[in-house]
Amino acid sequence: MGEIIVTNATESKFINRDVAHLIHPLHSPSAHASAKVWVTGDGAFIEDADGNRFIDCLSGLWNNTAGNGRTELADAASQQMRQMGFASGYAGSSNPRAIELSERLAEITYPNINHFYLTSGGGESTDSNIKLARYYWKLKGKPDKTKVISRIWGYHGVTLAAMCATGISSYWPMFEPRIPGFFHIPGPYPYLYETPDDAPSQGIAAANELEKKILEEGADTVAMFIAEPVQGAGGVIVPQDDYFKRIREICDAYDVLLVSDEVITGFGRTGRMFGLEHWDVQPDLIQFAKAITSGYFPLGGIGISDEIAQVMNDSGSPWMHAYTYSSHPVGCAVALAMLDIIEKEDFVAQAQTKGKRMLVKLKEALGDHPHVGEVRGLGMMCGVELVKDKASKQMFDAKDGIGAKVHVETVKRGMFSRVRGDVYCVAPPIVTGENTIDDIADILGASVRAVLG
């Protein structure tokens, strides 16, 4: 793909109107000065207001796995809106689409998870699991079990409680003090985790960080451990094969709920329907969003183990937690249509096959570069870690903005994504064609060389 020729004639008019009234997520006037205005999309491609076409290298925000232009999803929303645009999901009300969706989810999630509470997205799902964990332990006669442990570089959303669980510290200072009772441990991060000499393996050592923190805080005070199977926004960090099995053992030993944050990894992204399936581990709670509707409608939820659901149902008291849009019939209709696509087009197999190709091509394009420390990934999500010195793993100074500069170069060449510091994230739609996957590697290779030689 050649370099994009940007005229900005129409786009600049949109931006002028935008800055007059809109406040954006991660709002920054300086960052928004070079913003894109997206007006249409087709499959793995998006087009800006000036007619320039780009590879959507992050599936929007990890969510648009089916790509743009899926008339099945639009038709499902339209049909449901015409039949009934909204109905309450509060206790005492339900609707057919929500019932059908919960049945479908029970068929495809972990065997022990057969009950679901629906939200509008990932952050709400995190908050819902935190509140549910506290409620559960109170019902079990252990009201002091309220603390939440998560991992450095973990991302779980930025509503207030979710922000406290998120382990990316740049999200905290503007809004502190944080809620007490949230703690972060080092993640597995195979590229950077320093393994003690007496550890049986790097994965076991990283998992044992959880045991250390539980013992430090007191097992009778810890409610849950929340973790992404593959850390996404934190830089596509794929754990060691023995990591989550040890995590499950630790959670069982100390009566700590294991919460799998499947907001990015759910519904085929990693080459399995859900992420922890790679390591044959079952969580107590899950949370999902994003790909359940391919981003066409804001919908998320939590999956609840049979044991936890039974305790809730036996309590005799209502769970005082609610969202207006829980079980939204239109969202559920879109989700059902999306599950049809995932199954008919075998997104799991596509992610396995295409993901392997993407990782190979990225390594071919970048693996030998002196400033590429690691190319890693699982399924259709990869990360390219840029470093100042490959041998010592020395990082660039943050003020150098290397990752941001590489992103600028990829935009020039017709590809749009996001970076975490100096990690370039690659997670295009699962429907992305093989030739486009090859183009992604070529564009990123050329962009890294443009910045770093």
Could you describe the 3D structure shown?
The chain is an alpha/beta fold. The protein folds into 2 domains: 168 residues, Aspartate Aminotransferase, domain 1 (Alpha-Beta Complex), CATH 3.90.1150.10; 274 residues, Type I PLP-dependent aspartate aminotransferase-like (Major domain) (Aspartate Aminotransferase, domain 2). It is 38% helix and 15% strand. The strands form 3 sheets. A 7-stranded mixed β-sheet has the order 4-10-9-8-7-5-6, sandwiched between helices. β7, α9 and β8 form a beta-alpha-beta unit. α4 runs antiparallel to α11 and α5 packs parallel to α11. The model has no long low-confidence stretch (mean pLDDT 96).
Helices and strands, with pairings:
Layout: H1 9-21, H2 29-32, E1 38-42, E2 45-48, E3 53-56, H3 59-62, H4 71-83, H5 96-108, E4 113-119, H6 122-139, E5 147-151, H7 160-165, E6 182-185, H8 202-217, E7 222-227, H9 243-253, E8 257-261, E9 285-288, E10 300-305, H10 306-314, H11 329-344, H12 347-366, E11 372-377, E12 382-386, H13 402-412, E13 415-416, E14 419-420, E15 423-426, H14 434-452
Parallel strand pairs: 3-13, 5-6, 5-7, 7-8, 8-9
Antiparallel strand pairs: 1-2, 2-3, 4-10, 9-10, 11-12, 12-15, 14-15
What proportion strand?
Answer: 15-25%
From N to C, what is the helix and strand string? HHEEEHHHEHEHEHEHEEEHHHEEHEEEH
Number of domains: 2
The unreliable regions are none
Would you tell me which CATH topology of the largest domain applies?
Aspartate Aminotransferase, domain 2
Major sheet characteristics: 7 strands, mixed
Mean pLDDT: 96
Q: What's the CATH architecture name of the largest domain?
A: 3-Layer(aba) Sandwich
What does the oligomeric state look like here?
A: single chain
Radius of gyration: 22 Å
Give the structural class.
Answer: alpha/beta
Count every beta strand, where a strand is a DSSP E run of 2 or more residues.
15
Strand order of the largest sheet: 4-10-9-8-7-5-6
